[in-house]
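Task card 7
Instruction: Convert sequence to structure tokens.
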Amino acid sequence: MSGLPVTARALFEQNQNSLAQVQSLQGGSPRRATRGRAVRCSYSGSAIAAWLALAVAIPACAQIPAATLTEANAALQAGEADKALALLTPLPATGQGAAEAQNLQCRVRFTLQQWDAAVKECELAVRLDGSNSNYHMWLGRALGQKAARASFFTAYSLGKRVRNEFEEAARLDPRNAEALSDLGDFYKSAPSIVGGGTEKAETIAAELERVDPARAHQLRGEIAEAHKDYSTAEREFRLAIDVSSHPASQWTVLASFYRSRRRWTEMEAAVHNCANAAARDKHAGVALYDGAGVLIEAGREPDFAAKMLEDYLSGPSKTEEAPAFIAHIRLGRLKQQFGDETGAHREFAAASALAHEYNPAQDSKA
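Output:
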């Protein structure tokens, strides 16, 4: 019993005799359910009190194997939502590794666009480990998606929570470039009533300059675009490409800018540059997905959009940022446009096999 806390060890020793007496009268031994669930036994009185107190005194009994979390994360990155949930759902809600398990569940729900469920899981992760910058960042993201679909008054309340979570994520890790970028985007987009503001966004851009210069230029470009300063926006987006270690993604940002300005020839050229850059970067799979999305939204070059999706799905760098099941759905819709119903059915079946809970109608690029 040397591994027990002092109070638990004393409690255990104090109740050994009474427990043994009850066992001798009623027979058997306690049968505990797996994963920290409630004790099932036939004892009563002081024996039950002793065992319940002991269970409370040793909350760290449950420990989630690191290999399970690694496997679940790999499934998430591969777009295998069903597999990830099958691994994560049965896990205990407390104990070592539980916070990471809840965060992973939040992110799976996020890819499925189940915003309420994502918020719930992310809240649990933050409650279990409030010192983790990424957990606050993901909670802010889930709340942001929920706010975007809420009524005005609900969105106002949620907006303040989004700001708080992003600010906390940046405070906990000032070098978390993703959290800083999310916070800067919030400040740029949100009204002042919930804490937004251009000056705040510019401050974040300055902080990003020291951590991730490409994201800093992108944020400055987005600020300029919001102010209808399109020449400055274009210049900043091009500077982001120049300084980025993964320029393929920055090419998609520029392509999206050209799409919004209806500069079709330049948009198509930017998407092709994205594909060329992705071919030289094994970590740039998400850029193929995003580039295809720009073309689909614009209704341009469907053949090339389909090729980009096929390259993404057959490549080694799938990511939760570009869920494979959504890529299959988009590719299936393109094949329907081409009159390839057999190929389309195959893509839709592949999507369903990966994530049967996802509703294709949710895809904004339908």
